Amino acid sequence: MKNTINWIVVLLLFNLIACETKEPTTPDGGDLGALVINEFLASNDSTNLDEFDESDDWVELYNGTSDIMDVGGMYITDDPLDLNPWMIPETDPSETSIPPKGFLLLWCDKDPEQGVRHVDIKLSARGEHIILLGKDMATIIDSIQFGTMTTDISYGRETDGGDLWTLFATPTPGATN
Hints:
By secondary structure, the chain is of the alpha+beta class. The chain has one domain: Immunoglobulin-like. 14% of the residues lie in helices and 30% in strands. The protein has a six-stranded mixed beta sheet, with no helix packed on it. Strand 11 and strand 12 (165-168) form a beta hairpin. The protein is globular and about 35 Å long. The model is unreliable at 1-32 (pLDDT under 50).
């Protein structure tokens, strides 16, 4: 039993290392390097409402390329050990496609019956991970680990797609940071 657990740990570590060294690509071989987690709000009380007038947690994705990018079929999770991450449905590309230099909000409300952008994860204001995986469920497109968050204060890239993260007292969901 101990050997089995050791092998599982080794395989998981190998997979994480291998995933981090792969160059992400779209299904047609294009570059995914400019698709990033751009901003998120882990404790939304009154900042913005979804189409059901609910103040749910959200993750904003940014497409820094000059092409439309459909994230349908990609996966999202808040747990790095999750062996069954949530697949963003491929059923409505009009809802899961991000225009060039554009944004897409995913509602982290565990209410997938509300639509394709309502994912089956919920963010913890006490801190955790957000991981966006490719359609192969192994390629890490982008990820962030965060600590304790304050209600209605988002955390995002200082400039869209940039490397520096900062807190936003006035969140900018679906708009430039």
